[in-house]
Amino acid sequence: MAGNFSFDQLKKAVSSGEIDTVLACIVDMQGRLAGKRFLAQYFVESAHDETHGCNYLLAADIDMEPVPGYKAASWSKGYGDFVMKPDLATLRRIPWLEKTALVICDVLDHHTHDDLPHSPRAILKKQVKRLSERGYIGYFASELEFYLFSETYDSARKKHWQSLDTASPYIGDYQIGITTKEEGVMRRLRNEMEAAGIPIENSKGEWGPGQEEINVRYAEAIDMADRHVILKNGAKEIAESEGKAISFMAKYNYGLAGNSSHIHNSLWSADGKTPLFYDRQAEWTLSTLGQRWAAGQLKYAKEFTWFLAPYINSYKRFQAGTFAPTKIMWSEDNRTAGFRLCGEGTKGIRMECRIGGADLNPYLAFAALIAAGLAGIDEKLELQKPFVGDAYQASQLPEIPKTLRDATETLANSEMLKQAFGDGVLEHYVHTARWEQFEYDRRITDWELHRGFERY
């Protein structure tokens, strides 16, 4: 939970005029930053202790429409306040915004000041506490992919998001020459994130024209989730300041590769010094603990897929032959797999979950992976043998849910997640999933108009 800026440093920077704005942000259900811009002196004087926001922010859809049917917040309950409690350990300067600092806030109940159970950050904190009680630290890293466009968001909107100009005209996966054309945004993104306390290891071209991947150094789960959401928000802000636009949609174009968010995860000792997945004598050099963790994630993958793919569009990404997985299995260094073992034979051995898209909420995704991993440990599950070959063509393998509707129903029936998250929390997100499906089902799409306006 580390930023790069102490509260004492903030006070000095405010006094000297170096900082005049503080962004106090929660993370909403969609994984976006929401909050307030404080005149810095008022944040230092009082708001560093707490501020408040409307509780509809965790009961609204992506369009910010209040969604009926939530037990936690509703019109009948008056949409009251919750507490936004700044986690001062997350304070950081934001180099791409003038004289600005940012802090992540926990969301607390207005009356009890306990964590609000359905807050994404609280859900992850609960699972991290379960790890801590066993003497474990969970290290995570998410690889974000996105498309960079030679468009502004305004110009893309005016084109109805069709025939957009990507930053490069053809695929430049790993190609240095073509990605040089994109360095105006990508160099700033790497350097300014680093300056904000978010260490960027590298960026690269991906398997789509103008598609990028950026890799953040691994961290403890909550810190990594904080980095993830600040990176997504900042990437859009940096791109917009350069007259560009970025999209993290899982599948913005049927004919092009989707945007993933692969999640690397492993367990270490409480002091962070001993890798608990590495056993030089074990099969695949993966310890018994690591094998059970992985087996749990495989067993419960269908049940937690919604936390990796939360929208209608998310399921358009799962297409054979596109580097997006379609099957639930694991393999040794095989990119057709839903789960891939990385770092075999080294202390950095870890499991990579390849199911998630760049549209996921990292707090929810990490929490679900931890819950499944712990279930595998508790149930002493045995890890199946790794798959070898092209998983796309292996019809006997279990499939990732093909639609939001399928994923929602497996989520709703998950006893493991009910126990790990609590009945009320799971019900809250099942309701979120069903609302997304309901909203889609009653809309008329461009595809329907193209197909049926004249022909029906």
TrEMBL record:
One of its GO terms (biological process) is biogenic amine catabolic process. Transmembrane segments: none annotated. Pfam families: Gln-synt_C. Keywords: ATP-binding, Ligase, Nitrogen fixation, Nucleotide-binding. The keyword Calcium does not apply. Residues 17-115 form the GS beta-grasp domain. One of its GO terms (molecular function) is ATP binding. Signal peptide: none annotated. Residues 120-456 form the GS catalytic domain. Its cofactor is Mg(2+). Catalyzes the ATP-dependent biosynthesis of glutamine from glutamate and ammonia. Belongs to the glutamine synthetase family. PANTHER family: GAMMA-GLUTAMYLPUTRESCINE SYNTHETASE, TYPE-1 GLUTAMINE SYNTHETASE 2. This is Glutamine synthetase. It comes from Mesorhizobium mediterraneum. The lineage of its organism: Bacteria, Pseudomonadati, Pseudomonadota, Alphaproteobacteria, Hyphomicrobiales.
